[in-house]
Amino acid sequence: MKFLLVLLIIILIVAAAIGFYKTQTDEPTVSDDVVIHTEKKNPSEGNNSTADNSSTHLSRQQSREYMAQTASIHQKILEAVAQVPLPPAETITDNSLNLIPLTGTLVDVDKTYPPPVTVNPSDYLKDFTKIDDKIIPKKVAVKEALVLNVDMDGQSSGSVTVQPNTEVDVKEVKPDQIVISAGIATATIDANKTDFLARVDASYKKNFTEATETITRQRQAAEQSNQQILQLRKQYADTVGMPPEKRADGIIPAVLHGLLINGAPNIDPKDIINYGDVRFEVIGNQPYWTVQIEISPSAQAHMEHRTQTPFGTRIDVDQHPPTKALIRMDRVIRWVSTDA
Questions:
Q1: Which residues, in sequence order, are CB contacts of 28 under 8 Å at separation 6+?
Q2: 20 to 30 Å CA-CA from 275: which of 68, 78, 185, 304?
Q3: 258 in Cβ contact with 264 (< 8 Å)
């Protein structure tokens, strides 16, 4: 509808220009500045009368106004033509989008970077041996005064009293007790007499927080990479449009049409013995749909490459004819050789 409206405006503008021109030529004024030659017949003489050659004179001012009016009308025509909307390019479908390969590998974020597993204290409170070795503290602080025995060659040689809040070493973890030492004195005690469980809990929470932060960064980086890969493919798709159609008889109309444009190889369509598959390629950092055509050996042997020289046209046999069509929006952009 918009196209028809613009076309009607163009017709009206052109009609106005023609009417103005007739007005100027039918009502002449005498002047020595501009002369327009016209032919008029005397109506009283009928069809047998001879033509009266006369001259229509326009003053210099009228001539300027006429030229300005003509230029204005011409400009309006150009502006109206520029407003005629072009048909929109066909949007690429999801199926065709899959024909464009990804420039990288998409990461399965959930599978590659799963959230860290939280540790429930009930999992290890009944059995301290289930605590991760990296979590077991090397030292603990005693909550009350403890007596540690000193053993020498398997025999008791006295004892050492450890005061509250004193740090001791953790030598071993048993299912429901821990073995601590202070120098050469050792004791197997209830873990609740120390801050053992509090330190274990703090270590688990710290590890969980650090693991969560690390995995979050990894997931964000992977998601950003996936997005960039998909965006680039979408940009390629928007540039090349839908892949050219290949008919049931094997002919690709876009390629056939491309043989008629400037720069096309001198190939007779009847010499094409095969239209290759439609492929997506990036050539010179630019995306294209490409089709490689195969021509008969006899035709290829006689393909000529013409070069204009100061001495005339030089004709060479093209050993590597450009038989690959680079296509965008169902139009051949250019032809290249198979080495491209």
A1: 36, 56, 57, 58
A2: 304
A3: yes
CATH of 137-195, one of 2.70.50.60, 3.90.550.10, 2.30.30.40, 3.40.50.300: 2.30.30.40
Q: Can you state the percent helix, strand and coil of the chain, rounding each to 5?
A: 40, 25, 35
The pLDDT tens digits of the residues spanning 66-108 come to: 666 655 654 554 444 344 443 444 556 666 788 899 999 999 9
Q: Residue ranges of the domains in the chain?
A: 2-41+48-82, 137-195, 253-336
| All residues at 6 or more sequence positions from 169 whose CB lies less than 8 Å from its CB, including other chains | 138, 139, 180, 181, 182
Amino acid (one-letter) located at 300:
Q
CB atoms within 10 A of CB 338: 10
Give the tens place of pLDDT for each residue, 183-232. Answer: 889 999 999 999 999 999 999 999 999 999 999 999 999 999 999 999 99
Buried b (16+ CB within 10 A) or exposed e, 99-114: bbeeeeeebebeeebe
**Pairing of the two strands 304-309 and 286-295:** unpaired
pTM of the model as a whole: 0.56
